[in-house]
Every structure is written in structure tokens, then in C-alpha cells.
Amino acid sequence: MTNQLPHPLPEGVTISGPVGPEGARILTTDAMRFLADLVRRFDWRREELLERRRELQKRWDQGWRPGFVAETAFLREADWKVAPLPPDRSTGGSRSPDPWTAR
């Protein structure tokens, strides 16, 4: 494998790993400009989200668990019942017992 591309890298772009023939075909100048633009525009947010993830992981490791918001407590505390099951329709008629089986 080689790190050589048949075209120059956009300003500020470096490739730190091997680039084979398929990579060279995919990493066109336009594609790398696009990726560089994404990083320049959104890397701050990616870093922010990664830091939040690290903080939440620390809390999780210390025993914290997420909970429900208080505003929806009435839903969780309600007397819930599910509807009864419909009658068994897998026997009789021309229906297949397995609805995924072709008829």
C-alpha cells in the first residue's frame, strides 16, 4: 500500500494511514475538500459531544442511572391494561399458520 495520491492534498489535510488503490480512487480532491470543510465547520460540536459522553460515562461508572421526567409520572402511575388477545386465527380457512410463509 502507498500513501501517495495522484493529486495534491487540500490545505490543512493530512493522511496518517495507508491509502491503497481503492482509497486513492475514493479520496478525490473534491471529496477531501468536502471532508475538510465538514471538519472545519463541525469538529467543535463533535468534540463537545465526545466530552459530554465521557462525563456521562464517568457518572454511569459511579452508579448514576437515567430516570424519567417528573412531568410524565402520571403516565407511569396509571392503571395500564393491554387489550385481550384476538382469537387464534392460525387454524381453519386457507390461511397459513405462518403469516410469513407464501401461500
Task: Summarize this entry quickly.
The protein has three helices and no strands. The chain is mainly alpha-helical and 103 residues long. The model has no long low-confidence stretch (mean pLDDT 86).
Topology:
Blueprint: H1 21-26, H2 29-61, H3 73-77
Can you put this structure into words, describing what you see?
The longest helix is centred in the middle third of the chain and has 33 residues, at 29-61. The chain has helices at residues 21-26, 29-61, 73-77. The model has no long low-confidence stretch (mean pLDDT 86). It is flat and about 70 Å long. The chain is mostly helical and 103 residues long. The protein has a domain at 1-64.
Overall pLDDT: 86
Using only CA atoms, what is the Rg? 28 Å
Shape type = flat
Helix content: 40-55%
Sheet-strand content, in percent, reads under 5%
Distance between the termini: 53 Å
Contiguous uncertain segments of 5+ residues: none
**Structural class by SSE content:** mainly alpha
What summary fits the major beta sheet? none
